[in-house]
Amino acid sequence: MKKAVQFGAGNIGRGFIGALLSQSGYHVVFADVVDKIIDKINEDKTYTVHVMDVECEDQKIENISGVNSTKPEAVDEIASADLVTTAVGLVILPRIAPTIAAAIEKRMADGNKEPMNIIACENAIRGTSQLKKAVYENLSEEGKAFADEYVGFPDCAVDRIVPPVKSENFIDVVVEEYYEWDVERASFKGEIPEIKGMTLVDDLMAYIERKLFTLNTGHCITSYLGKLRGFPTIDAAIADEEIYDIVSKAMKESGDGLIKKHGFDPEKHAAYIKKIIGRFKNPYLQDDVSRVGREPLRKLSPTDRLISPLTTAAGYGLPVDHLLVGVGAALHYDNPEDKQSVELQAKIKEQGVREAAKEITQLTDEKLLDAIVAEYEKLA
Ligand SMILES: NC(=O)C1=CN([C@@H]2O[C@H](COP(=O)(O)OP(=O)(O)OC[C@H]3O[C@@H](n4cnc5c(N)ncnc54)[C@H](O)[C@@H]3O)[C@@H](O)[C@H]2O)C=CC1
Ligand SMILES: O=P(O)(O)OC[C@H]1O[C@](O)(CO)[C@@H](O)[C@@H]1O
User: Fold this and answer.
1) pLDDT tens for residues 218-232?
2) How far apart are the C-alpha atoms of 200 and 124, rounded to whole Å?
3) Does ligand 1 come within 6 angstroms of the Cβ of 162?
4) Which end of the chain, C or N, has fewer beta carbons within 10 A?
5) What positions does the domain Mannitol dehydrogenase N-terminal occupy (predicted)?
């Protein structure tokens, strides 16, 4: 049986990627830092994915085990794996890189020339490439040459909404029915693995931007406006007519930029937006606005879901009024439990909103910055 190591036994690890791999005939080793989860996986050897949507279904996930990712056993598991996937969060990738590098060195020492592929399933532009860079920083020169030949690093886009939902068994997960996992065909080494639900694509950047700058753009604007108006969850926020109006128009503005940039079909893109807003309304997910808005500094960075669509659309001379409202709302995000939100609010207090926004977004267009400040002030 083929073996996959899934770094991160969290929502996406258990509710999406690990589940698909197990359903595709892999033994899945979950590598995490939380022993409680690892121990439970090893004890039960199964958990349930509750698909809760228009149609509901329970899926039993089997052929699984767990390992603490910081222990030497994790290196051994990777050294004998066919596939490694991650869903740990972008900031964690550099922390798992030394373990992956050690496993590649071990494969080389063992003379194991079977190809292995590593895919980072994170919300980011080319997350796998970022992981590869960190792994190579930890490899010897021989290790790098070995990895060049036998280790593939395909980038991907991942789309499934999996919020943490309390259930009787804490390793069970609640997911929406929809999922999309687009992986760059050209970067695989060896035979491309057959995985149910994985779509091979050639123009990955278009897929990443389509997902990140449609779903994630609309989702985070819903969360920031929802938080400002006291809505606890995404479905409650999107039910507010004004929020719905701003979010759908912001997604359209982002979409118009994407259509110009990637040549998407406008009708199909409008249908894609409509489908996503329908997903935000799923009442079973009870998705907390603070989860979706988490880490606002990352979300306000130049290449992420708020600023990149803004600069793309503005670059084509297209309207960006509702994206600007989204940025203004994000700057208001105030959650004492979120380190980045605390840092954001401290920066605004210290430097004023214009200077803080300029530093965080790295925008140089003075008119856009003026408009962001105006939206921020309107929302105050
Ligand atoms: N939850 C969602 O709906 C979606 C999340 N994503 C992305 O997937 C990634 C994971 O998100 P979630 O699953 O929601 O987060 P999560 O917080 O539920 O899971 C992350 C897991 O990584 C583990 N972890 C932390 N440090 C680790 C380390 N050094 N080694 C191994 N495991 C470690 C944590 O203990 C946790 O179990 C993020 O990049 C997120 O942006 C992408 C699409 C959907
Ligand atoms: O995981 P991030 O990047 O913090 O953002 C949360 C977003 O990711 C998702 O979990 C899935 O794409 C969305 O639910 C949400 O828009």
Assistant:
1) 999 999 999 999 999
2) 18
3) yes
4) N
5) 3-196
